[in-house]
């Protein structure tokens, strides 16, 4: 496989026939990117969970497209978030794990792209691509808030907060960070355009976020807008309010909190869609949803969180760590009831939106884009992914260095730890990764290993400066 065949270079205009939409579709549709945090493939109703109540996400999937094989670009949060905004492998822009780097200003984000097209841009929720408070940027992090990456306004945290009462450490919290009842991260983890926020912080965190999203939409309904909404749910500390816990009273405490906070998030997604309807904006707004990686390690091992039938969980290179629930809705553009099992990715948001708004890079900003156009998938114009998928998670001080590549139906992975064992799977016949073919298929193993090394080296050149102007 030639190296260039896996790259989609946005250096030429997208022809209008690639994105033919109905006459009623606006030239500049609104775009909303929704993302949950640590929500497993199996932790949503539309992927078959019969116990978890997610009626609004289920409605999105039914009224638009359900992506049955949608991949996060890494098995953990920060790298995936960067891929969403740039359309590039995380190893290109150097965010290889959490709290190890900030988003580089040399990267071009969806927000910057859309600002150039006259959009108003807003970010809401968990950023995790750099510190949002300059005073907090310490030895393991960098000050790199949303305002440096194309967002006109933001209401953001640097990283995780409790999913209920986000400024207070939960009463039963025994893990990293803070003692029960103490202020969480000083009691003001949210920053709105550089100013700490202390009002309207009680209760469900997803509601706290949506209380800022909806006014942004209302204020910009007369112009095109881009809203990135990255919920904390259901990342630990996983806490649900009593009313949400009661819905799952037949389950144990851990599942009551997990399911309850997911249902609370789902409720806010329904609230958002209802407000779009009330404002007459639904048909002019494309809404995408996905999770940032597979379900949390500890909750999956306990049988609480679910990757569905897939092997693995967060921090692993197996399908369960990478496959996430995903759907999108855009009335009169995406046909209701659309489903696809073509392998799609968080890499694909950038080129999809670029095509929708007819964006192309200027000559000085040319760079490889690793995603593909989801609208072509939705319209049935492609029957398989035209480019490889490359995943990585690296934190060398902890001996963590996992990578994986999917080319066609073949997947090669190197386990993140403990021994970095290399495995080979044929996902066409073995989607649940039960049969390692590394010994049986030495030629395929060599070919995939060579390809993995090529992409890794290419990403190294990107992050060493090949894609940036000086």
Automatic annotation (TrEMBL):
GO MF term (any one): arylsulfatase activity
Keywords (A to Z) from UniProt: Hydrolase, Signal
Enzyme Commission no: 3.1.6.1
Residue ranges occupied by any Sulfatase N-terminal domain in the UniProt entry: 29-357
Signal peptide span: 1-23
Domain of life of the native organism: Bacteria
Gene3D superfamilies membership: 3.30.1120.10, Alkaline Phosphatase, subunit A
Family: Belongs to the sulfatase family.
PANTHER family (alphabetical): ARYLSULFATASE FAMILY MEMBER, ENDO-4-O-SULFATASE
Protein name: Arylsulfatase
Gene from which the chain derives: atsA_101
């Amino acid at each position: 496989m030639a190296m260039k065949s896996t790259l989609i270079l946005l250096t030429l205009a997208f022809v209008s026939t690639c994105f033919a939409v109905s006459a009623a579709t606006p030239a500049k549709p609104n775009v909303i990117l929704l993302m949950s945090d640590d929500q497993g493939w199996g932790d949503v109703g539309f992927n078959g969970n019969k116990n978890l109540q997610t009626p609004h996400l289920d409605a999105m999937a039914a009224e638009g497209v359900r992506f049955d094989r949608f991949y996060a670009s890494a098995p953990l949060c920060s790298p995936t978030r960067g891929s969403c905004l740039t359309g590039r492998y995380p190893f290109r822009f150097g965010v290889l794990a959490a709290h190890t780097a900030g988003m580089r200003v040399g990267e071009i984000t969806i927000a910057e792209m859309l600002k150039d097209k006259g959009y108003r841009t807003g970010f809401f929720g968990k950023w995790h691509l750099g510190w949002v408070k300059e005073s907090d940027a310490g030895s393991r992090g960098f000050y790199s808030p949303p305002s440096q990456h194309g967002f006109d306004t933001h209401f953001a945290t640097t990283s995780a907060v409790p999913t209920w009462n986000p400024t207070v450490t939960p009463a039963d919290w025994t893990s990293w960070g803070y003692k029960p009842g103490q202020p969480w991260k000083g009691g003001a983890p949210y920053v709105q355009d550089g100013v700490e926020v202390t009002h309207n912080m009680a209760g469900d965190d997803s509601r706290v976020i949506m209380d800022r999203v909806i006014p942004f939409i209302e204020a910009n309904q007369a112009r095109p807008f881009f809203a990135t909404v990255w919920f904390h749910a259901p990342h630990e500390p996983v806490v649900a309010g009593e009313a949400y816990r009661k819905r799952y009273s037949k389950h144990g405490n851990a599942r009551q909190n997990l399911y309850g906070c997911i249902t609370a998030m789902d409720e806010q997604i329904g609230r958002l869609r209802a407000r779009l309807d009330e404002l007459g904006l639904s048909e002019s707004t494309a809404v995408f949803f996905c999770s940032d990686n597979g379900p949390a390690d500890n909750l999956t091992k306990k049988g609480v969180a679910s990757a569905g039938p897939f092997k693995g969980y967060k921090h692993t290179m197996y399908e369960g760590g990478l496959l996430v629930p995903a759907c999108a809705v855009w009335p009169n553009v995406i046909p209701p009831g659309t489903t696809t099992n073509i392998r799609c990715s968080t890499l694909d948001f950038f080129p999809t939106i670029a095509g929708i708004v007819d964006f192309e890079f200027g000559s000085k900003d040319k760079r490889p884009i690793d995603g593909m156009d989801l609208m072509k998938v939705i319209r049935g114009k492609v029957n398989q992914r035209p480019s490889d998928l490359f995943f990585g998670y690296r934190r060398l001080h902890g001996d963590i260095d996992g990578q994986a590549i999917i080319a066609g139906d073949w997947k090669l992975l190197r386990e993140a730890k403990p021994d970095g064992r290399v495995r080979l799977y044929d996902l066409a016949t073995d989607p649940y990764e039960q049969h390692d073919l590394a010994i049986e298929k030495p030629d395929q193993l060599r070919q995939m290993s060579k390809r993995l090394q090529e992409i890794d080296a290419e990403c190294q050149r990107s992050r060493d400066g090949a894609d940036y102007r000086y």
